[in-house]
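ping. complex inputs:
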Amino acid sequence: MQAVRFHGRGGQGVKTASRILGAAAFLEGFRAQDSPIYGAERRGAPVSAFTRIAKEPIRERGLIAHPNLVVVADASLIQDPAARVLDGIDDCTVLFVNSPLNPDQLRAQTSLPGRLTTLDLTGIALQQFGKRGAISALLGAVAGRLVGLRQESIREAIARELGDLGLAASAIERNQKVALQCYDAVPVMTIEKGAGPALVAAHLHVPTYEPPTRGSARISASANSVLRETGGWRTFRPVLVPDKCNGCWLCFAFCPDGVISMTKDDKPVIDYDHCKGCQICVHECPTEALVAEREKEGGVAWRAK
Amino acid sequence: MAGEMMTGNLAAAWGARLADVDYIPAFPITPQTEIVEALAKWCESGAMAARFVTMDSEHSMMTAAGAAEVTGARVFTATSSQGLLYAFEVLYSVSGWRAPLVLVNVSRALAAPITLEPDHNDVLAARDSGFLQIHAETCQEVLDSILMAYRIAEDERVMLPAIVNLDGFYLSFTREPVIMPDPERVKLFLPPFHPAHLGFTASAPHALGVAVLGGVPYTYFRHQMHLAAMNALEVHREAAAAFERLFGRRYDVIEGYRLDDAEDVLVMTNAFASKGKAAVDAARAQGRRVGLLRLRVIRPWPADAIRQALQGRRAVAILDQNLAPGQGGILFQEIAACLYHEALRPRALCSFIGGLGGKNLSEGEFRAIFEQTAQAGVQGKGIGPVLLYTEAEHREMVQLQVLAGALKS
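pong. complex structure:
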């Protein structure tokens, strides 16, 4: 069985990518299973998705603890412990990271286990589509290539899954074209089967009663959202072009996370430690004084602490 | 006879009054309304120092009750039947907040078809909600159980909300003598409520019932609720002893009636258990060695006490005043489960369904129950669910069908 785990941020399309991979495997006659897991469906929050592909019946469910292939749609997730990108990876695991850096450059920045391969899917998408958007077809195609699925089934799976999402035929065709470029371009690593961890019975903890000060679902810590830095959720950041700003305060009013403050001369200041990169301010700015700039590894204003 | 004539509803209201509750969110529903009417009157006259608020629904009522409780107030509320079901979602939240309020449910069978008289599908629907459940047989027990419920619920080892159940009409509107506990002694029995994990300070907010994902923290908190509910067995034992010391009346998690030498035992709950006891007397007069076991605390499930009471009997009949369509009697299933590991388990377990929608249980039906149970015991093979319905009742039903146009006469 091939077990593929996708990691991305809400809005990047990893759920759809896992479905494209599942559908492609299904079309080739394999047994397939795909499923996402996410919390409150927030754009930018860590999301995982799982695809299993096998010749025999699949008797597993839910999250993949020991993947053969891990597909990372956003390199900033590697540093976010909440995303658990590196869980269960061993020397046999192939790790694909969407990054403009090559594997050696990436390893120089972050110590990564497994066998690493990279491709700048976001860069390709920007170049080919000319705008920011989900890269599900590209991720699905890369994953399909790495597990050894055929181009034709990837093409058909993209049509089915993006069609289900209501994309126009022309948009689907563009996605197929770019996805298959990525399919050809990704440096291939052969997936090997790891031995996996030895199976032993779990050591069970016998629960004991604890007083409700401890045993009830209660948080009494004082305001702590400032401690949870969400700057790493961004794939794009809003950047101010001061000359164009007319000081209207609309960005301040629309920011759903309260991370924009205003100076005395009516210019916005963005708290990049907490800005999630939703781009609502960019969308609302009437004078185009806020623009979206892609976050780059190594050059991020925010780093996990 | 000591005491004064009082309905079960008024006894429930007195329970709340004597418990010196701080807050009563209310919504009327037959046959519970008299409870909140009495409390409203007392709050208005100043006889009670509680704040009484009429809400727009039972859902809001339970939400307000839980929210007030978590600020550290002692809260009472009451509902029935459809009202309990309308509040259902909130029951699980309140128990998860570990907010030990007391809710009185006046049992009334569930629609459809709609009716006003009791059976226990309403209160038993809440059996997995995390609320403790005490089911009362008499008006006196209603009042006393509310005081016990607060003491047990508010114990640091428990901290779970409690339902005290009484049957609509058969207790709610039925007057019988009730001895009023001395308020000064109630203060000794029920100390002021000062929960360590609840309370409200504007400068130090806390969040309750927060979102937890991934199953690990969720499982921990659910385990804690289970352990808390199980602790309530021991806490109940202590409360029962203290209550007896102060007031001279004793309530255990189960009550045995003429069990000592009984070879066959009938299991019942709530107000109809009084009729069951009379039926036991009648059967004994005819030479049958039978007894009755009344389940008083349903949550936590007093498995050990039930096993001890039922082990070694020839046959046990469970009379469920509820019906799980497609399954049978709810309490039958729980009793069967807890007897499975008992080496001396009864030779036959018999399931009877009766008293639905407040339908009378006649002496003849009890006699049929005892006869069928004895026979099952002799044969060593359980029966049921037996759906109790007499031929006379069926003839009455046919007449109604004619009137309703369902049958051509």
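The longest helix of chain A spans residues 169-185.
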